[in-house]
Amino acid sequence: MSTPVSLEELIAWTSLLSEEERLVRASVARFVRDRCQPIIAGCFEDGEFPKQLIPELGALGVLGGNLEGYGCPGMSAVAYGLACHEIEACDSGLRSFVSVQTSLVMYAIHRFGSEAQKRKWLPEMAAGRVIGCFGLTEPDHGSDPGGMKTRAKRDGDFWRLNGSKLWITNAQIADIAVVWAKTGDDEKSVTGFIVERGAEGFSATDIPRKLSMRASVTGGLSLDDVRVSEASRLPEARGLGAPLSCLNNARFGVAFGVLGAARACLEQAIAYTMGRTQFGVPLARKQLVQQELADMANEVVKASLLSLHFARLKDEGKLSPAQVSLLKRNNCRIALEAARKSRALLGANGVSGDYHVMRHAMNLESTYTYEGTNEIHALILGRALTGESAF
């Protein structure tokens, strides 16, 4: 028997990373191992998000990780991607919290907010003392956010918001919500507002019987004639392109993150088949098993290297929306397939929470859909390749 080669050795990321990037990855991996992994199975089963970890995530430097100034760490896109990778190796719900806080809410304020808004909210959010959610998706408008029905009407120095949002991560625990609404009838009128918890007419609701992302807080937002000041409007956000740019930013973290879940599933499948004896030999000695492991490793290694390449482009300001769609679509599909195949290799034990694989598989069903479905990203790529829109 030869000495096994680890998945880490096949990817060979280490030599391609800076010292800072290696340190970020190691510190996040250590935090996940010591603080997150021991409790995550119970959180998932109980349908509870581990809120006690939020201040620790802030202290770790991952909230607002790749944003500059205002108390944000200002790490590279590569380092932030690696942090998402390690967090999602534990659970997609944990990474989803970080992504929404960082890549959606904080990014929206950082990119489109006033100086006063940035100074007020970003340092508190980076520390984990203020939690945010991103109100774009509506009950009848998921893949087509331009059809949103939420409206904002001017009322002197104030605005009145009416509408509802659904499938909003952090909704029930958020201190602020970045809510997107139309001030007119077309997509050019889409405007962003910061709505604070406790505003009259503003409430968050639960989504019952959720079977995926159970260790994540997901809910709906209701806005019933909510009155907010002009100072709460994001002054630089003009048109649907503003929230879509936030989604594009978040998709990068999703793409990097899901590979962490894929890696965790594959490593579990390798360890299990090496230790499980059937027909007098380890399962890992069977050709069909080795083929499945090899196929998964092929895809995870290729996706990991593509992710690093695209992250370098993002750091240089050269990553296009089409490339982000390619990465998100590719990595989410690979991760979900790895989780499903790993579950099968574990047999009946694959559905046990003790082995974590089924939990990853259920979570990855959501990542396959959110931040743009697999089909939507196919259309984005198709438009980029042909110049023709099929939307």
Can you offer a commentary on this structure?
Helices cover about 50% and strands about 15% of the residues. By secondary structure, the chain is α+β, with helices and mostly antiparallel strands. The chain has 3 domains: about 5-125, Orthogonal Bundle (Butyryl-Coa Dehydrogenase, subunit A, domain 1), CATH 1.10.540; about 130-230, Butyryl-CoA Dehydrogenase, subunit A, domain 2 (Beta Barrel), CATH 2.40.110; about 240-385, Butyryl-CoA Dehydrogenase, subunit A, domain 3 (Up-down Bundle). The longest helix is centred in the middle third of the chain and has 35 residues, at about 240-275. The protein is globular. The protein starts with 6 loop residues before the first helix and ends in a 5-residue tail after the last helix.
Give a concise summary.
The chain is built from eleven helices and eleven strands. It is of the alpha+beta class and 391 residues long. The relative contact order is 0.12.
List the helices and strands and how they pair.
Elements: H1 7-11, H2 19-46, H3 54-60, E1 68-69, E2 72-73, H4 77-88, H5 92-112, H6 115-126, E3 132-135, E4 151-155, E5 158-169, E6 176-182, E7 190-196, E8 202-206, E9 218-229, H7 241-275, E10 277-278, E11 281-282, H8 287-315, H9 321-345, H10 357-367, H11 374-386
Parallel strand pairs: 3-6
Antiparallel strand pairs: 1-2, 4-5, 5-9, 6-7, 8-9, 10-11
Helix pairs in contact: 2-4, 4-5, 4-7, 5-6, 5-7, 7-8, 7-9, 7-10, 8-9, 9-10, 9-11
